[in-house]
Design goal:
The complex is a heterodimer. Chain A is of the alpha+beta class. Chain A has one domain. Chain A is 29% helix and 22% strand. In chain A, strand 8 and strand 9 form a beta hairpin. Chain A is globular, with a radius of gyration of 21 Å. Chain A starts with a strand and ends with a helix. In chain B, strands 10-9-8-7-11-12-15 form a 7-stranded mixed sheet, with helices on both faces. A 6-stranded antiparallel sheet of chain B has the order 4-3-6-1-2-5. In chain B, helix 6 packs parallel to helix 7. The radius of gyration of chain B is 18 Å and the shape is globular. Classes of the chains: A alpha+beta, B alpha/beta.
Chain lengths: 334, 281
C-alpha cells in the first residue's frame, strides 16, 4: 500500500535523525536566501523555494581539507583526513534537478582514481527527493531529459499531496531501509492525489543533435557572439549542481597548515593560465565555449552523460543575463 | 607504481638529496622517498609526471626527468616562475617536499626498439625527453642511431650542460646543440640558429626513425613542418603537451584540450593525435 507522511511527521523525522546523530541537510532559510544546509531541527526545513545553490556541496563541499602537514624539529609529517569520521547524512528535500546530479558526477570522481572524499560522502548519504511543484521561467529540466518529478538519484521520493503532506516512495534499498526503520512516522493510504508538478517551461531538446553540432563547431563565430557579455564571474559554475572543477591550495605556513580542495570555474581568466604566462584559453569566448562543450559534449564523450540537469540556477544568477537554455535551444536548431 | 593511499591527494614525502643549478633560474632536484616501502615500490615510465609540493605553498606539475633505469631516486627540473616554484627553490639539500604520482601515459618505449631516434628539444623542454634519452642510452643496443637536436635562447639557458658534454663525447650519440642567434659567446662550440633551422640542416633520415619533440609552442609549430619535409609521418612524431594541472587525476577539469584530458590521456601524444585535437593549447 502507498505510504504517506504528514508535514508534521516529516519534521519529526528530521528531529529524530538529528537526535540520533545523523547529519541532516535540507533547504533552510539563511537571511535572504534558502540554501541546502545542515538542519538542527525539523522546523528549519523550508520547502517552498528552490535553494539558491545546488545540493552538490553535500558531497563536494565548497572548500574541504584534504590533508594537514606539520614541520617539527626539522621533520615534516603529513596527516590524512579520517574519512571514517564523515557523518551518516540524510539529504532531505532535494529537488529532482539536484538529486539527479550526483549520479552524473559519480563518473568523474571514480574514473580510474577514486576521490574518496566525494565517494565516501555519497556512500553515507541517503537522498530524500522532493517533487517540484513550483518552477519558474529559468527552469529547464524538461529540456535536458529530466522532469519535476524525476526520481533519478533519490533513495526515497516525496511528492506533495492535496490537503498537505507527501506521498512517499522508496526508490532504492537505502530508501526502503529508511522507510522501514522509521515506519511509525509514515501512514498507509490507499488513494492520494498528488499536487500538480511544476509546469515544464521547455520541450525536450535533442541532446544528440546539440552534441552533433558541438562535435563539428569548435571553431565558430557563435562562441564570440554568445560570450561577448560574459564577465567571467564564475557564479554559474559555483551554483551549478554538476560543475565539478576544483583547485588545490595550501593554507598555513611552512611550519603548519593544511591542503584544501575548493571549487573553481573554467570561466575564470586564470583557470588555465600557465606559469610561463601562456594561456590556452586566453579570452572569454574560449572559456565560455569550454563551459558549453564540457557540459554537452566532452563529458558525454568521456562518460556518456550530459553535465546539466536543467535547474536554471546559472540563468538566475548570471549578472549579464546569459541564458544557457536558450543557447542550447539555439544550437539544437542549427 | 605504489598501492595508492585511500586519499589520492596525499603526497609521499621525499628528501632533496642533491640540487643542481642548470641555469640561473632552472634547478634540478634529486629526490629520495623517505618511506622505504615507497622507495622500493615506486616505479614509473618515461614520460609520466608528478605533482611536487612545497608545504605551505601548494603543488606544481613537472615531469619525472630521471630515467626509470636509474633506481633509488627520481629527479625533477623546474624554472622558478611562480609562488610554488619560488618556494621549492628556497628548499635546500636535506629538506622535505611532497610528491604525488606517477601520473599520465608515457613514451611507448617498447615500440621504439630497433628504431632510429631523433630527439628535438628546446629550452626547458629537455627534461621530459631526458628521461627517455637516458632510458634508451641505458639499454643502448635496443635502439638504432640516436640523434639529439637541442637548443636554447642562450648558452646559459641550456639545461643539463654536464650531460650535453657527456652525450657529445659518446660515439653512439649524435648531439647537435644550438643557441639562438646572439645567444652564443666566443667560446661556443655548437651551432647558432633556431632549433627548426638547425634540425633541417642536420637532416636526420626519416627511414625507420621516430622523432621525439618537446619545446615551447612556437618551436613545435616550426619544427613539425621541417620533420614533415624530412619525411616523418605524423604517427612517427611524438610530443608531449604541457597544460596547467592541479589534480593530475582527471578530475579538476583544467588540463583538457577538447575532450582529451592531458593528465590522463597524455601528456604523450603523436603529432597525428595533436593535429586531431581542437587547437586550444
Amino acid at each position: 500500500m502507498p505510504k504517506t507522511i504528514t508535514e508534521q511527521n516529516l519534521q519529526a523525522l528530521i528531529d529524530l535523525l538529528v537526535k540520533e546523530g545523523t547529519r541532516v541537510v535540507g533547504p533552510k532559510r539563511a537571511d535572504t536566501m534558502v540554501l541546502y544546509a545542515p538542519l538542527t531541527n525539523g522546523a528549519e526545513l523550508d520547502l517552498i523555494e528552490l535553494p539558491r545553490r545546488s545540493a552538490k556541496e553535500t558531497f563536494f563541499p565548497l572548500c574541504e581539507e584534504i590533508l594537514s602537514y606539520e614541520k617539527k624539529d626539522g621533520k615534516t609529517s603529513v596527516t590524512d583526513i579520517d574519512l571514517d569520521k564523515l557523518p551518516e547524512t540524510v539529504l532531505i528535500g532535494a529537488r529532482p534537478c539536484d538529486s539527479a546530479a550526483p549520479g552524473i558526477l559519480d563518473a568523474v570522481f571514480s574514473w580510474d582514481y577514486n576521490d574518496e572524499f566525494y565517494l565516501e560522502r555519497r556512500k553515507k548519504t541517503v537522498i530524500i527527493g522532493l517533487a517540484c511543484t513550483r518552477g519558474d521561467d529559468a527552469c529547464f529540466c524538461t529540456a535536458v531529459g529530466y522532469a519535476p518529478d524525476t526520481k533519478q538519484g533519490s533513495d526515497l521520493f516525496l511528492a506533495p499531496v492535496e490537503g498537505g503532506g507527501f506521498s512517499v516512495e522508496a526508490v532504492t534499498d537505502k530508501g526502503t531501509a529508511l522507510l522501514a526503520r522509521y515506519g511509525g512516522l509514515f501512514q498507509d493510504q490507499a488513494a492520494v492525489s498528488p499536487l500538480p508538478v511544476a509546469t515544464p517551461t521547455m520541450a525536450k531538446l535533442d541532446l544528440a543533435r546539440i552534441k552533433g553540432w558541438l562535435d563539428h563547431n569548435f571553431e565558430s563565430d557563435f562562441w564570440k557572439e554568445i560570450a561577448v557579455r560574459c564577465v567571467g564571474c564564475g557564479a554559474c559554475a559555483f551554483i551549478c549542481p554538476a560543475c565539478h572543477c576544483f583547485d588545490i591550495n595550501d593554507e598555513g605556513t611552512e611550519a603548519k597548515g593544511c591542503r584544501r580542495k575548493h571549487w573553481d570555474a573554467c570561466g575564470f581568466a586564470k583557470f588555465t593560465n600557465h606559469a610561463s604566462g601562456h594561456n590556452p584559453r586566453d579570452v572569454q569566448p574560449q572559456r565560455y565555449r569550454n563551459r558549453i562543450m564540457h557540459k554537452f559534449k566532452y563529458y558525454d564523450d568521456k562518460f556518456g552523460k550530459t553535465l546539466c540537469t536543467g535547474c536554471g540556477r546559472c540563468i538566475r544568477a548570471c549578472p549579464v543575463g546569459i541564458d544557457i537554455a536558450a543557447l542550447i535551444e539555439e544550437i539544437s536548431k542549427k | 607504481m605504489c598501492i595508492p593511499d585511500k586519499n589520492i591527494y596525499k603526497p609521499y614525502l621525499a628528501t632533496i638529496e642533491n640540487i643542481i643549478d642548470e641555469t640561473p633560474d632552472v634547478r634540478t632536484f634529486r629526490l629520495v622517498f623517505q618511506d622505504e616501502a615507497v622507495r622500493d615500490s615506486f616505479s614509473f615510465r618515461s614520460g609520466q609526471f608528478a605533482e611536487y609540493s612545497a608545504f605551505g605553498y601548494g603543488e606544481s606539475t613537472f615531469c619525472i626527468a630521471s630515467s626509470p633505469t636509474r633506481k633509488g631516486y627520481i629527479e625533477c627540473c623546474f624554472r622558478s616562475v611562480g609562488r610554488v616554484t619560488e618556494a621549492l627553490r628556497r628548499l635546500e639539500i636535506g629538506d622535505t617536499l611532497g610528491v604525488r604520482g606517477p601520473y599520465g601515459n608515457s613514451f611507448p618505449i617498447e615500440a621504439l626498439y630497433g628504431r632510429n631516434l631523433v630527439f628535438v628539444a628546446g629550452g626547458i623542454a629537455l627534461p621530459p625527453l631526458r628521461t627517455l634519452i637516458w632510458n634508451c642510452l641505458d639499454q643502448r643496443d635496443k635502439f638504432g642511431e640516436i640523434t639529439i637536436v637541442y637548443g636554447a635562447r642562450t648558452e646559459d639557458d641550456l639545461v643539463y650542460k654536464h650531460e650535453l658534454k657527456e652525450w657529445q663525447e659518446r660515439s653512439d650519440v649524435n648531439l647537435v646543440k644550438t643557441v639562438d642567434p646572439g645567444g652564443n659567446s666566443d667560446t661556443w662550440d655548437g651551432r647558432v640558429g633556431f632549433v627548426p633551422t638547425i634540425l633541417e640542416e642536420a637532416a636526420p633520415k626519416s627511414d625507420n626513425c621516430v622523432a621525439l619533440v618537446c619545446g615551447p609552442p612556437i618551436m613545435i609549430k616550426f619544427t613539425l613542418p621541417v620533420l614533415e619535409k624530412l619525411g616523418f609521418s605524423d604517427e612517427n612524431i611524438i610530443t608531449t603537451l604541457e597544460n596547467r594541472m592541479k589534480c593530475g587525476l582527471g578530475k579538476c577539469g583544467r588540463c583538457n584540450v577538447g575532450n582529451v584530458y592531458v593528465c590522463k590521456d597524455g601528456p604523450v601524444f603523436t603529432a597525428k593525435q595533436v593535429k586531431e585535437m581542437p587547437q586550444e593549447f
